[in-house]
Amino acid sequence: MTASGTSKNTYAYHYQVQVQLNVWNIEKSVFVLWNEKDIVVDYIWRDIQCFNKQVQSVKHFYVTGVLPELVGRWLCRKPVESSEGGGVRIPEAVPTVERSDGEGGRVWCYCEKPSYGDMIGCDGKNCKIQWFHMDCLMIRVPPKGNWYCPHYRKKPKNGGKFKSK
């Protein structure tokens, strides 16, 4: 609370309240503080801009932290030995599946962003993504030899095709 008795939008529950207001499409919430001598009632209004920033932040965390772990157990893996220049390549001009950022640029990786920083190419013949940001996969050192993305590693060894029963 400020000296004037209104709540700051930096208090511990601000982001939680903003998510609840926006998810449930409610315009305001009542925030009540009391003690033996006084009671303060404050209205917390829905802030769509604050909510949108939170959504972007959570999406970034999911794409760069949670998703690589779910798909390839990147945080639980043992580190890969490095080789000088091996494993890191510049993306080729045409990916197998063209994906665009809406401004004419191609996007890569699970994060679906343009090429930047160190990139690593999947050596799988039919990999749909082809290129990955090493930062997104939390790979610090380029691996030696062929490298296969988490999705491609899960494919069967019979040419990447699943057998039907």
From TrEMBL:
Keyword Transferase assigned to the entry: answer is no
The entry's keywords: Chromatin regulator, Metal-binding, Nucleus, Zinc, Zinc-finger
Residue limits of the Zinc finger PHD-type domain? 108-153
Q: Which Gene Ontology terms cover its molecular function?
A: zinc ion binding
According to its UniProt entry, one GO biological process term is: DNA repair
| Compartment(s) where it occurs, according to its Swiss-Prot or TrEMBL record | Nucleus
Q: Which SMART domains match?
A: PHD (SM00249)
Family, per entry = Belongs to the ING family.
The protein's name is Zinc finger PHD-type domain-containing protein
This protein's GO cellular component annotations are: nucleus
SUPFAM superfamilies registered for this protein in UniProt: FYVE/PHD zinc finger (SSF57903), Restriction endonuclease-like (SSF52980)
> What domain of life does the native source organism fall in?
Eukaryota
Show the InterPro entries listed in the entry: ING_fam, PDDEXK-like_dom_sf, Restrct_endonuc-II-like, Znf_FYVE_PHD, Znf_PHD, Znf_RING/FYVE/PHD
